[in-house]
Specification:
The protein has 113 residues and is an all-beta fold. The chain has no helices and eight strands. It has one domain: Gamma-B Crystallin, domain 1 (Sandwich).
Length: 113
Amino acid sequence: MRISRLVIPLALGALGAIGLPAASALAVNTSNIVFNDIPQTHQTIACNAGRTAALSFIKVQFIENNCEFRMWLHQNSDGSGVAECFDPHSTENASRTQNYRQVQVTSNTAACP
């Protein structure tokens, strides 16, 4: 079952205000995971299909998925537990109640179910 989420309407220039480079400066082949920290931090992920990576922090605020593929957040570092899907080329909130320890870039280009 897909966790419901909100799409974050971000003006392209507003990304610089939260510590991320302006969208026009982002490489097309990377995505950003923004964490709910003070000060706000982010982790850049390469858009390589099949890639998994440990997350720097566990409280994800939102994902700016610039990849042509779905991205998944997983509760546990081995990919098990609760998972949340993020559509290709989207910016979406993550669940506020779940901690995540792994991100996965799939080879699936379709929207999440």
